[in-house]
Each structure stands twice: as C-alpha cells, then as structure tokens.
Specification:
Blueprint (H helix, E strand, L loop, with lengths): L13 H15 L29 H11 L3 H15 L5 H9 L6 H6 L4 H11 L4 H8 L1
Length: 140
C-alpha cells in the first residue's frame, strides 16, 4: 500500500507499536477458563490452558506494562492509529486531532478494551507506510 501520509508525524516508534500489536493480539485471543482447576498436564489438554484468562495473566500484564510505559503523545498516536485503521477517519492528522481532545481520558484502558486492537493498529500503520511483515523480516 502506498503511504498516504508522512510517517514522521508519529511520536511512537513503529517498533513499539508493532510490539503492542503482538501483545494486543495475544490478549484478544484469550478466552474465559473452561476448567479453572484442571490440573492436567498441558500436553494432555493440547496446550489450551495457555489461551485461557487467569488472575496472574502474563499477557495482560505485558500489554498493561507496554501501554503504561508510553508517554501521553505515544498513547494518543495509538488511539489515532486505531481509529485510522478502523476507518473512522481518512487521515492520521484528523484522527490525531480528535485524539488530542481525549488527552485527559483513560487511554490505556480504552485501547485495551478495543476489540481487534492489533488489527486496527496494523492497518493504521500500513496506511502510513509501515509494514508488520517488513518489521518481522528484519527481526528474524
């Protein structure tokens, strides 16, 4: 996809955004526990327990830590990228301006509660010319 905007407008690094995409997708894939006290060997139950939510959920903790480590401008960028990727706005500049109006809200909670957050962020970054595939190729 051709970049439609100047990617230098981002205050969050694409690498950080891609990390959050991965964590958001892991978080979205979780399901409520089906047998909280199964006590079974993971190989016996086809490793499905790893997809179940738990009180000491490392995936949620990692996503919370990643979102909490961002400054306000980086959080606002993520919100704008989410809206851009979801199709709520046609340009990053419009989405970012709207996100600025939400500066005092609980952005990390809003983002974590957004279904398909990883997909929307990836699409928003793609519209700015950043590819998760290219990022992963450079890391392997």
């Amino acid at each position: 996809m051709e970049p439609t905007e100047n990617p230098d407008q981002l205050t969050i690094s694409p690498e950080t955004a891609f990390y959050i995409i991965v964590k958001a997708r892991e978080f979205d894939e979780q399901v409520p526990p089906t047998d909280p006290d199964s006590g079974s060997n993971p190989s016996d139950d086809r490793e499905v327990d790893v997809l179940e939510e738990s009180p000491d959920d490392a995936v949620e903790q990692e996503l919370d830590a990643a979102l909490g480590a961002l400054n306000i401008d980086e959080q606002l960028d993520l919100m704008a990228l989410t809206w851009l990727g979801r199709g709520d706005f046609t340009t990053f500049a419009q989405a970012r301006q709207e996100a600025d109006d939400m500066r005092d809200k609980h952005i990390a909670i809003y983002l974590k509660g957004t279904p398909k957050l990883g997909d929307y962020l990836e699409e928003g970054l793609a519209q700015l010319g950043h590819s998760l595939e290219d990022f992963e190729k450079n890391r392997l």
